[in-house]
Amino acid sequence: MTIDQLETFLAVVNNKGFRHASRKLFLTQPTVTTRIQMLERELNATLFIRSRRHFSLSNQGAVLLPYAQTILLLYHQAKEELRNA
Where is the signal peptide (predicted)? Predict the structure, then answer.
């Protein structure tokens, strides 16, 4: 699990889809999809329920969400502290 994967996961959640997340992150949609697939494979979890007209967070994705938010918050706080040290 990488910071990039977690940031991508949160971007997909917050932007309600892969296409909007890719625009927000300045990445291609296939890159966003690959990051999410790699994260899902590592966690052995389905994070999103996808179809052509439907997109939502799965139960497993809902479990990951607060952890991802906390991990990224701590990561950015640590970077800031180190810059200021």
Answer: none
